[in-house]
Structure formats: C-alpha cells, structure tokens
Write a structure and sequence with these properties.
The protein is an all-alpha fold. The protein has helices at residues 3-23, 32-45, 50-72, 79-89, 92-125.
C-alpha cells in the first residue's frame, strides 16, 4: 500500500472511531482508550516503512481526538467554540498514538530478532553429515 493511501486510511479510521466513541461506543467513557490504543498499535505495525507508520499514526491520533472531542462535547457552547476546543486539545492525540506506534515497532523488532536468533541456534545445533570429500 502506498504511503498516501496508508495515511488516508489512518485518518479515515480516526474519524470513524472518534465519531463512534463520542456517541455510541462505551458512551464516551475511558474504556475507549483501550480500543484506541489497540487500533494505534495496529496502524503502527501494518506499514513496513517506519516513516509511513508514524505519519499514519499521527494523522489517526489527531483526527480521532478532534472528532471525539467535538462529538462528545454536546454542551450549550457555540459550534465555533466547540470546534476550536476540539482542534486545540486534539494535539495530545498524535503524541500518544506515535508513542504507542514506536513502542509497538520496537517490541516487534525485538521479538523478530529473538525468533531469528533461535532459528539460527537450532540450525547450528543440527548434526552435520560428513561426505567422503571432507575426510
């Protein structure tokens, strides 16, 4: 998948999940954070390129928080004030999302390295067969 498409998909997922979380999913409670974190980790692990993962994760986090704050804040404030509040406070979203993405990529790399190391150890432990030309 191209970088642009990956970032756009991350943004669309953020908008959709933010809208669902603000009104329907868990009623705007803190349980949403678990779902958001799982999706942020998935968005961070899917792209093979680190820059693409960070961009998609940042866009996801920002749009998720902005849309959630706008839809969950249904008080008597004017619409312009709600939008400015959501856009300003949504800066926290990319910070958390990018941090989770980096953590997930580091852990994934460590696990792949260990698995590769074990595979190499098993290959070294296999008995070698001697051929007549070795003697």
């Amino acid at each position: 998948m191209s970088r642009t498409l990956t970032v756009v998909v991350g943004g669309v997922v953020g908008i959709g999940l933010g809208a669902l979380s603000g009104q329907i999913l868990f009623g705007g409670s803190a349980w949403n954070l678990i779902v958001w974190a799982i999706v942020a980790i998935a968005i961070g692990l899917l792209p093979t390129d680190r820059l693409t993962a960070l961009l998609a994760s940042g866009v996801y986090g920002y749009l998720l928080c902005a849309v959630f704050l706008y839809t969950a804040n249904t008080g008597g404030a004017p619409v312009a004030q709600r939008i400015l509040f959501a856009l300003a406070l949504a800066v926290v979203g990319p910070v958390c999302s990018i941090a989770l993405t980096l953590l997930a990529r580091v852990v994934s790399r460590q696990l792949r390295g260990r698995r590769r190391g074990r595979r190499d150890e098993r290959a070294d432990a296999l008995p070698t067969t001697r051929t007549p030309s070795d003697e």
